[in-house]
Amino acid sequence: MMRQRVSRTDAGSQDSFLDIVTNIVGILIILVMVIGARVQSISIKPKEVSSPNLEKLMMEVVRLEDAIVASESELFELDEQGGQLSGTVADAGNARIHLATAVSAAKWEVEDQKQKVDKDKAERVEMATQRQQIKDEIEQCNLEAEGIAHAPQATKELLAYPTPVGRTVTGDELHFRLAAGRISYIPLTELFDRAKARTQRKSGGSLASMESRIETVGPILDYALDYVIEVQINRSAGQVYVRSREWVVKPARYDIGETLDDALARQSRFRSILAGVTPATTVTLWCYPDSFEEYRAVREELYRLGVSAACRPLPEGAPIGGSAEGSKSVAQ
């Protein structure tokens, strides 16, 4: 009996629970349907904007559009101005180049004018200096003229040379060299004698076996002799000719010899050499340009001694020499 009661009680509890669930589901369905119906009945309407705000917005849009148009216009103008500015810059660059060229030309012209002015100024200064020198010389000449006019008259001996008559030297000849204001004896005869002895010694008695060549002898008294031996053979006549075709005298140094005062002294080498001259002897003076004053003094002394003199003027640096085809000295 007890088991049956329990079973009935449990079955009744389960039925009550199912009823509750069914009711709840039904209620939920009804709520869903109600809510769906209400949602369908709701109409979405746009929020109306008040007309004053809309006008302000429209005016702002118009103003912005105008600003955009104005900005585009300004940008176009700025672009055009930029192009014009570029052209102006290019023109300014060309103008600067032309200006720099003009400035350079102006500087050159100014410098040229300055040089001309300096040159003219220097010429004027030089002319003024020369004018002053001429004035000083004129004044000095006037003073000397006054001194000569008031000076006592003195008798001066003049050495008069006879009218020169040239003659070719054929006898003995002595040679002197005048250079650097000094006179020295050239032992030309002694040098030729030594050259002749040397040639005979080298020939060994057979002149036909000799050949033309250059020889040197000396020095003698500070002079050496270079000479060219020329051999000519005449086979048809069986003769051999040997001669000195050319010769050059070489001093040991340029300034050899005695000064003029020493040479004209009593115990000088110059006078000792002149002591053995004969009336037929001619003194040949080889003179360089730096010793013409000494040449005149020596010539006067030779004239006093009655010795014939011949002059051989030489250009500076020229050697003393001769050849078989050369000319002989001319004495006066």
Key features of this structure:
332 residues; alpha+beta; five-stranded mixed beta sheet; four-stranded antiparallel beta sheet; 6 helices; 11 strands; elongated; disordered N terminus
Structural notes for this entry:
The chain has 332 residues and is an alpha+beta fold. The chain has helices at 2-41, 51-150, 188-203, 260-263, 269-274, 292-305, and strands at 167-168, 173-179, 182-186, 213-220, 223-234, 239-251, 258-259, 282-287, 308-313, 320-323, 330-331. A five-stranded mixed β-sheet has the order 7-3-2-8-9. A four-stranded antiparallel β-sheet has the order 4-5-6-10. Strands 1-11 form a two-stranded antiparallel sheet. The longest helix is centred in the N-terminal third of the chain and has 100 residues, at 51-150. The chain is elongated, with a radius of gyration of 69 Å. The N and C termini lie far apart (207 Å).
Summarize the structure.
With about 325 residues, this protein is of the alpha+beta class. The protein contains six helices and eleven strands. Residues about 1-5 and about 155-170 have low confidence and may be disordered.
Task: Please outline the helices and strands.
Layout: H1 2-41, H2 51-150, E1 167-168, E2 173-179, E3 182-186, H3 188-203, E4 213-220, E5 223-234, E6 239-251, E7 258-259, H4 260-263, H5 269-274, E8 282-287, H6 292-305, E9 308-313, E10 320-323, E11 330-331
Parallel strand pairs: 2-8, 8-9
Antiparallel strand pairs: 1-11, 2-3, 3-7, 4-5, 5-6, 6-10
